[in-house]
Amino acid sequence: TARAGAPLVTYRIAxxxxxxxxxxxxxxxxxxxxSTARADAPLLLFLPGTGGRPQNATDFQVAAxxxxxxxxxxxxxxxxxxxxxxxxxxxxxxxxxxxxxxIYGDDVTSLIHDRAExxxxxxxxxxxxxxxxxxxxxxxxxxxxxxxLAWARxxxxxxxxxxxxxxxxxxxxxxxxxxxxxxxWDNYGARHTLSPWVTxxxxxxxxxxxxxxx
Length: 214
Description:
The protein is α/β, with parallel strands linked by helices. The protein is built from seven helices and eleven strands. It has helices at about 15-20, 60-65, 80-85, 95-105, 120-135, 160-170, 195-200; strands at about 10-15, 30-35, 45, 70-75, 145, 150, 155-160, 175-180, 185-190, 195, 210. The strands form three sheets. Strands 1-2-4-3-7-8-11 form a seven-stranded mixed sheet, sandwiched between helices. Strand 7, helix 6 and strand 8 (about 175-180) form a beta-alpha-beta unit.
């Protein structure tokens, strides 16, 4: 836990500043941490909901920063939302494919036109590399390993669509912690059957998942 009342450091960095290939969904990422937090503090990634922006969730980010986390509120491609696409699609794996493409950039569906460099993983990687370059004493490289995200050092959180993204990341990869607000509820078909990826269980991060139903 950081020292009570210590000043918070805040950076706001547009995605296009750290990756010139990005031209849309370019509202600034919000980076926040307590100036007295440990140098090896865990990173908390927060993903807003559909139409949301990182700067609209600063109360949560402040609370997390006061607990000793370094917090990144990430701007990402959030429309069309998973729930706008998949409930009427007969493919049970529609939601998983959309989330996989939006998070990792894997070209597994044509239902969304997100490019690989626009993916959540690509945006976060580019941001961490830029932070490490511009603030070398802050050790942002500790959240990367061989140029890739070191998910075990990263807690994931989100609201609505963002919470579904966080849950999917945690199901595939061990992460430091999971905090979910009002999701996931991915479903398909006339009976609104839960998507197989949701009923598959907690997966790789089963010991860390906590869900808050808002």
